[in-house]
């Protein structure tokens, strides 16, 4: 299968291991992976700020570049939701409306692609640790992904998954919200970290690096004894 | 101070108040457990939401006919129906009725519409005594503050806080027992019912088919408010309409479940007019005041019209992580939480209240919880778009244009990453200080370290 992996800007620049792990996993499963170099961002910053024209200026490049892609896998639930759910609205009254509709049908979040499209849950990974899973809001509520990441974690050798209280509660990141309302964002993050720490897990796992960036930033600052790791990084460990 | 600055300032204070955080997390944690239990009693909660959304869609999209039907049926039984376009009009209508009745004491049951038009203030300024008969409302009235939450007005207070308040204001002995606290309030209130000349209520639903208002409550105080005084006035928003009586079969349990985690609320009463010949109780006069107060502007907005579906259950507040951390008072609005952030810009001006739509991580927990399926968190995005189109923030727009240029040009994008890597050691010098350009983030969180090699660098150079 031909898979186009879209690695969004912050994953590319800050969390390259996440993208690398995804490439390795997909290739190990026998798929042909391409990573378009001309596109970097999905356009969500402009969209969420209400500047839809500036958002379209970015999104249009993504839309055009991916117009012939067979299966598009996005290395973040949030950016995946942008392509799948919000592009049709963003381009709703433009001449690219049908292109946005068409792309929407071909877009997948990584864990959902493995489980729901490829039907794979056991990747032969081993990760000896106790982990707890945080549902990123966009993946969970815009894309409806709840089960796939857990199905994948359950098959990882030597891994113990301990669900935290309020796993579905937002970590407080929310893009620019985190810097526009840092006090609220931080309080939300502290509530999230407290739930995770209660599980005594070694790692907080998520399928979204943006949530993990926020949570890790708070954990490091406050010197808390739990680490964060992306689901793909666990799945690529053998 | 602007509403936005006040919001930020108060949010800054209250989010650091760990006692408040604990109190609200605990209270709403308990609510969630009860709500889930009661939701499970529905054969299919999602189908129930869909049915409720469709019923409200019908009601709101045919508001003109249903409201007319509602008013005509009420008038046929001798109710006086008043139409108020604005808050001042609604206040004047109510004040005129009260003056005409030469009333002195007014007893009131819980009504968010009364908060919306600042009715108590207006009545008190005109020399009338107003007594809140709902326990929570009575408590916040004694504290001279607005309700903290549209369903639980005093949820921010502990039993200790209430006992202290009662001791100070009513001279009662301190107690930790909820029953005793209720009895103290009841003793203070009961006498007022008997002597009050006018009773004012809100309404949960307005049934078009039969011309009746439906009031839901847990304490029985609204019944006394309606039954004892000679004159009854009900103030309700025009969006309260339900087409048929049988719709209550769905909406009453739904309101109780989503709002308070109850199967059904303690008391559910229907009022269809003043005391009719041969009836033993009820008021001599019944007035229904229908309030627009810019709801019709929301009705004209096809994209956000579904916000008028709201049954004021408070479910979106209860699950909202923003509400749970900043609390109800910080919003500075009558309606707080996600629904308040969506509708306040429509009711009170987009530019003054747009900050509430930005103060959201767009997590969508509200939309998921809403029993009538209002697309709440997407409407926050719509408000952001509308305000940015109407009055752009030049600096933000410029920043986004620059960002678009960089990410759209691979050479500049690569350069930006290199610059970022080079700047990182320098950034360490100012990190977390006021001169740090990333202070919005670094005041409370660390930034990740940029690795030497980006994903794209790896992709380009891999064998």
Question: Can you describe this structure?
Answer:
The complex is a heterodimer of chains A (238) and B (463). With 238 residues, chain A is α/β, with parallel strands linked by helices. Chain A has 13 helices and 8 strands. Chain A folds into 2 domains: 2-116; 121-235, Rossmann fold, CATH 3.40.50. Helix content of chain A is 52%, strand content 16%. In chain A, the strands form 2 sheets. In chain A, strands 2-1-3-4 form a 4-stranded parallel beta sheet. Chain A has a 4-stranded parallel beta sheet with strand order 6-5-7-8, with helices on both faces. In chain A, helix 5 runs antiparallel to helix 6 (97-106) and helix 7 (110-117) crosses helix 9. The radius of gyration of chain A is 17 Å and the shape is globular. The model of chain A has no long low-confidence stretch (mean pLDDT 97). By secondary structure, chain B is an alpha/beta fold. Chain B has 3 domains: 1-41 and 315-391, no CATH class; 52-293, Rossmann fold (3-Layer(aba) Sandwich); 400-461, no CATH class. Chain B has 24 helices and 10 strands. Chain B has helices at residues 3-14, 18-40, 45-61, 63-76, 87-100, 112-116, 119-125, 135-142, 159-170, 178-195, 221-227, 248-260, 295-300, 315-319, 321-326, 337-348, 350-353, 355-358, 365-369, 376-390, 394-408, 410-430, 439-442, 455-461; strands at residues 80-84, 105-108, 129-132, 198-201, 205-207, 212-217, 231-237, 241-242, 267-271, 285-291. In chain B, a hairpin with a 4-residue loop joins strand 5 and strand 6. The mean pLDDT of chain B is 96. Chains A and B meet through helix 1, helix 2, helix 3, helix 4 and helix 8 of A and helix 1, helix 15, helix 19, helix 20 and helix 21 of B.
